[in-house]
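Quarterly update from the structural biology core.
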Amino acid sequence: MTHKWWMHLYGVFFGIYIPREFQYLKGKVVLHLADTPSTFYGAVSRLVHTLDPMYVIHTGDLADDVKLELNPGDLQRYRRKLLELRRAISPGKNRKLVIVTGNHDDENSVREIFPDAIVFPRKGRVEIEGEEYNLSHDRNGLEGSPARFNLFGHEPSGDETDDSHYYLNGVNTIHVISAVSGEVYRLPYPGYVNDGRLLRRKRGL
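Predicted structure, tokenized:
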């Protein structure tokens, strides 16, 4: 599925545009996110409710508007944000959560607040429906030989695809991967997400 110009405009004003054809994917997808500010959690909740993913994979910086690496004293605020994120992505009987911690995450807090999640410190591999996923917080951390799906975040760079491998950056777009066909769909983030990541606050005139 290719981006339409109006999908980005929709994201600026309303949130994530979810194409109607996605109804056929419900319950049969892997959802990939990265570097999510807490301003985005409401949209994440709606996306999870709509798609009912089998797996949610987050490749780090779960509360990206709290920069723990720069301000370790913000740990309690960070933990409160994680509780909000847990409410957004956890409900669902058959949903599994895979988290790769980023440079602004606290691994102990992540493990405590998401006790049922598979948690990897900075990188790891997981098998889903017979396919291996190579995961890292940043592109350079992807380990070993490439898997079919190589997921990361941290810094902007484009997705790359060759005949048998996907390199998917969750900073740029939300990835929805069909667990049946392996097809990758990309959804634009709402326009305000980068403001949250960069700690930009809108000011009145």
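The first strand starts at residue 29 and ends at 33.
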